[in-house]
Amino acid sequence: MVHLSSFLLKTYHGGHIVIRLAMAGHKQSNRPFYRIVAAYNKRARDSKYIEQLGSYDPLPNIYNEKLVSINSGRIKYWMGCGAHSTKPVAKLLGLAGFFPLHPMTVTETEFHRALAELAEEAAPEDGVKQQQL
Amino acid sequence: MAAFSAARCLFRSYSLVKNVDQNTGILIRCSRRMLCSAPSDSSSPDAHVKPQFLDSEVQDILTRITGLNLEKVFRPIKQELKPPKYKLMTDAQLEEATQSAREQAQRLLKMPPVLPERKPINDVLSEDKILEGMDTAKYVFTDITFNIPHRERFIVIREPTGTLRKASWEERDRILQVYFPKEGRRLTAPPVFKEENLKMVFGQDRHEDMLDLCQVQFEPDSSEYIRVHAATYEDLEKMGKYDLLRSTRHFGGLVWYLVNARRVDGLMIDMLQKDLLQDAVSLVGLFNKVHPHSETAQEASSQQAYGLDLLKIYAKWESQRAGYVELALQAYEQTSAESTV
Question: Do B128 and A101 touch (CB under 8 A)?
Fold first, then answer.
């Protein structure tokens, strides 16, 4: 299967194929929206890609959901052709259950929890200080 | 090397996912088949196969009762304003055009299915306590592969507590509408479907529009669909306005609902008043098929009754307003006797 990737590399475009997040549309707006995309490694993040494999909306909607769509059939095809996935995509797919869970997700969760605990410890201290004042 | 082990992990998890795919697909297909087909072995000794809505005999009876009023089926609906087209035809061509119009009407009158209410989905795919507190929002993952039927699609939610569960039916409907929009369907149900607003709509005699809207918005086995349809049929039965649905595709559903609730009296009287004797007879026949243990059915089978006799048996045994039905029958017999004389 790795041979297929080198077959695709016949014309020089530099690098291999990756499955990554590309920001979709409209750099002016303060509203990010990502497309999960199979593209050549060396191309710019938002420029021409080979195929769109899904989407990811990082802002939650009114039901507090972040919508992610995954075209599992095509992702399987590209992974079979030797595409690599970047860290954010690997994390998303790990959360989905498509990939095994990414170790950095666990590390980040522990980090967030530690931060939250620090914030909690800080907040009662601030409250006490304000009362004293 | 790392890529190789990752690929091996991937293939292992892919095979797991593939098996889950097939198993859930088979399960869903089996459960759908079990819902549709009748139970083959029941506990009672003289178990009968309960006729379902989609049986060919039941559908035949219901299509006959619905009638085919071409004027009503092809009445002007709200559409783009175009100037009318006039065609010059011979008699034979007019016959052909009427025939094709009739076939088109029959296709338009195809009845929407009546399905039992769907069971809620409570599947948890994985519980990962290590992921608790990762994020304040849920992640909804949808599989947008093209060739899967919507009922078998994977729509999975990762909660902030770390559990990976399948989406419930309402969430599924909403998210499928986001990625595969159906025309006319909205993401949230329009407020017409609330109780008070339904009553207002019924007051304006717009039951048919209501049912069409419900058809577009909800899936046939969702609880909302069944609730709205039940409310509509109840109101129609209370007011006696069966004519509103008579030549539409919802009439079969109305008749099926009334027959299953055993409250066919109003409809029967309405039919007799409009001199639709054949329809009344087929209605009683359908009733006997669906409730073969009732006294009407047993009397009918013992006496091998047909036609008017069926109606007389029904009037005697089953109907609550027996006097009314018998009066109407007598009036019909008198008029038929006078017409023959």
Answer: yes
